[in-house]
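re: ur question from yesterday

yeah so i grabbed the chain u mentioned. its 325 aa long if i counted rite. heres the sequnce exactly as i have it in my notes:
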Amino acid sequence: MGIRSPSQPSDADSISKEICHENGEPAAILDSYSAWLAKHPSALDTFDRMIAAAKGKKIVVFLDYDGTLSPIVEDPDKAFMSDTMRMAVHEVAHFFPTAIVSGRCLDKVSRFVQLKNVVYAGSHGMDISTPTGSLKQNNPKHETRTVDEQGNEVVHFQPAQEFLPQIQEMIQVLEEKIKTIKGATVEDNKFCISVHFRRVDEDDINTLQEIVNSIVEAYPNFRISGGKKVMEIRPCIDWDKGRALEYLLDTFGFNNASDFLPLYIGDDKTDEDAFKVIRHMGRGYPIIVSSVPRETKALYSLCDPDEVMSFLRRLARWKKSLGIP
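ran it thru and got these structure tokens back, copy pasting raw so excuse formatting
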């Protein structure tokens, strides 16, 4: 079914050292990464075995954005994906149902990706737009229906709608309070808030965290989670990227099916919720993007966005070789 713990190919050590650690990492780090890679082998190296296990199944593709389709950059507003990556995603979406699941607000991630043949889920899955919506989550309180520029109906699923006034209030407070921290920025991702500190001096990070914690304490319905040089502030609701994956599978028509395999590629802690759901299903391919050892529920790995692009291209070539439109 594609979920059994994979074994490591014999040349994985040399590949990992050559690709992921080109800058002369110490031997101990290389050995540690190689040991981690034995448990989470490269999805490129194990591609043929993964595809063999997918015979007769329908692959459904889910992709994170930052750190997966685009590199992590100093300025989050400049996290642009390359044209070659865009073409790779477009080609995959031509052959497979494909969704982009990001912590960015839906409008922002759709502007970054600029593709019309994928479905978008922003705000860590709290803002989803699909043509049909989900039968399982058919809650009028959370769904609204609109018509796009082409006259097609669009269903917007937003389970955190009621928290918008508090989110906007908190953004104003955060922006005022962190003015004294050079390099700190507040990003409005509609149903969540990102406080970035990638450009903050190391000596100021603790102060920034204390300020953010003190502000969020005044809003008991919100919680803080960590990311890559970012603090994510989200409503305390039973919804995450894992629940979003289940919602999207339903909208793609796989709610009662047994002939599909979800393939999820992501690099962030919030992607672990999706990895857990796939593991619980007992089918599919949870793939983490990381060049360093880290705790994860993923079974496979890719080193960086370049490897993600290589994997997506290979996936599309395989499907195309079957002669199936």
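noticed a couple things. The two ends are 24 Å apart (CA to CA). also Residues 7-19 have pLDDT under 50 and may be disordered.
anyway ttyl
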